[in-house]
Amino acid sequence: MKIIITSPQNKEDRAVEEVLSLIFQKDENAKILIKAIKPGLSLIESNVTKEDLASILKNVNKTYFIKVIPIDIETKDYKEAIKNWISENIQNLRNKSFAVRCTSRFGISGTFIEKEVGAILNSYGIKINLKNPDYIIIIQPIYDRFFISFLNSKSYLIFLSRRKI
Predict the structure, then answer these.
(1) pTM of the model
(2) If you average pLDDT over residues 111-126, what whole number do you get?
């Protein structure tokens, strides 16, 4: 699984080292893919599960990293990827609510993508709840690719170091 790490600018080296040292508890083969894709943004790869990653990060006092985002899908076409994911999981999505979060990067409007994905969810009859969703879809544009994560509310708070959604 690929994992995006965000950090303050010029702290990418230390942030990656900090996260890798935590992940090495479960996966000694974790590795850096790209350090400083752009200031404050790095990418690593590990065989650790999303659940294990959440338990590792749950009570950690972080020094250098801000967010650790496990990636479920890497694609060039986020709309098609979301539609496929919905089609594969529609039975489990019916009574759940979702919010979409996208960071504006590389000349792409995060708000535009959030609205487009929200419209796709709506077209399948899936509820949108921006204040208290059951699940959050995170879309991270990086160059010509989109990295997509599907997180429950509890995991979202752990991975993105937040108190509230």
Answers:
(1) 0.91
(2) 95
